[in-house]
Design goal:
single chain; 401 residues; alpha/beta; three-stranded parallel β-sheet; disordered N terminus
């Protein structure tokens, strides 16, 4: 269990210290960084609170011991527009359970707002985000991770739009009825399925952003060719720093995304960010498979595998600088107008980088950007301006179609 203790005092230079099991990190955060966090909209386009509370209900309107998100920490970090990920596991693909779970997770988010309407509000548009920010509320826009709940029926697309979904990650860890997945060696469709191509058109028409995180390279290129509006990568990092990891984007894809007008939202997970952590993850997967074959998946020894493995082979955590390197690389390739934040908080377990361990730590990221010479206006673009631009273009297109 990790705990976070951060003392913030505006008007002076301070040290924001984060204490974790087995490690201590510290970064000096200026008054300016805190002001930028508190005075501007911060959009994090991928936070997995809905599935977290599905696994074990916890009231995130109050401080919580576990997890990466709750109201006090969000306020502390300046986070005011986190996209809540309506995540449906690939194991539910092609079953009625996927649609049922998606509706259930949306119900949870509505319940959170019902518990604390003075703290949270569902947001279904850019104007909602702006108006709720002015009122001091934390907006909860919704994005669907895995298009499985659509079930090949455009009526379901309309249903989830009506329930507030504003982006859809076309696939997750396996090819589904919409798209091939970057994680799935089978290339069922060689990109998008015929229905997937039709779906992208209808998403444009409704104003649902096309999210190309998780999809195969072929599916990515087909999606941006078909889409009449800019697409997003809601929580992806860069293959430049993790060679051979198809889940991340390579330079050619980043350039194509820039030409499309889209935005890549950088994932904070260590295994997404550095070569060493990514290699550790692959080795752990291979060792886990070998242990399962040797011990049997139902044995106590195998069930203790994860804890034992991490103790004996600790993850080489990425750092704040590692994440900043990804932002710098996008900026160098296609400019500052095409990068943002898609942390994957509550979705990547205990793999978050030092100094970015939960939603209280956005000022650390801002300070890092200041230290690297980014202007206030460019930082505001990274915090939310770029994503809001893409979202508004999608809204305007839908209004005409």
């Amino acid at each position: 269990m990790k705990t976070i203790k951060t003392k913030i005092k505006l008007g002076c230079l301070l040290v924001a210290s984060a204490l974790y099991v087995g490690q201590t990190t510290a970064i000096e955060v200026s008054d300016k960084a805190h002001q930028l966090a508190q005075q501007n909209i911060i959009i994090d386009s991928h936070i997995d609170v809905p599935y977290r509370v599905e696994k074990q209900w916890v009231d995130v309107t109050k401080a919580t011991e576990g997890g990466d998100f709750d109201y006090p920490r969000a306020k502390q970090g300046g986070l005011n527009a986190p996209f809540m990920s309506i995540y449906v596991p690939a194991s539910l693909d092609n079953s009625a359970g996927s649609t049922k779970l998606a509706d259930k997770l949306i119900d949870y988010m509505e319940a959170i707002v019902g518990r604390a309407p003075d703290k949270f509000a569902i947001a279904t548009s850019t104007s909602d985000v702006e108006e709720q920010f002015a009122k001091g509320l934390i907006s909860l826009p919704l994005g669907m991770e895995n298009g499985s709940p659509i079930q090949g029926d455009l009526a379901n697309l309309q249903h989830f739009y009506d329930r507030g979904i504003r982006y859809i990650t076309l696939a997750h860890s396996l090819a589904n009825h919409i798209s091939d997945s970057s994680y799935d060696l089978r290339r069922k469709w060689n990109g998008l399925s015929p229905f997937g191509k039709e779906l992208v058109v209808e998403m444009n028409n409704l104003g649902i952003l096309v999210d190309i995180s998780h999809v195969s390279d072929d599916a990515f290129y087909q999606a941006i060719e078909i889409s009449k509006t800019p697409v997003i990568a809601s929580h992806s990092s860069l293959r430049e720093f993790t060679p051979g990891f198809e889940r991340n984007m390579d330079d050619a894809m980043i350039k194509a995304l820039g030409k499309n007008g889209g935005v890549v939202q950088i994932n904070f997970g260590s295994t997404f960010v550095t070569k060493n952590a990514n290699a550790w993850s692959k080795k752990r997967g291979a060792d886990r498979k070998a242990a399962e074959e040797k011990l049997g998946k139902d044995t106590a020894e195998f069930k203790a595998f994860a804890d034992k493995y991490s103790k004996e082979n600790p993850l080489p955590y990425a750092t704040l600088d590692s994440v900043l390197d990804h932002i710098d690389h996008v900026v160098a390739l296609i400019g500052v107008d095409h990068v943002g934040i898609g942390s994957d908080y509550d979705g990547v377990g205990d793999s978050l980088p030092t100094d970015l361990k939960d939603v209280s730590t956005y000022p650390n990221l801002i300070q890092g950007l200041l230290n690297r010479g980014y202007s206030d206006s460019d930082i505001i673009k990274i915090l939310s301006g770029n994503f809001m631009r893409v979202w508004k273009i999608n809204e305007e297109y839908a209004a005409k179609h």
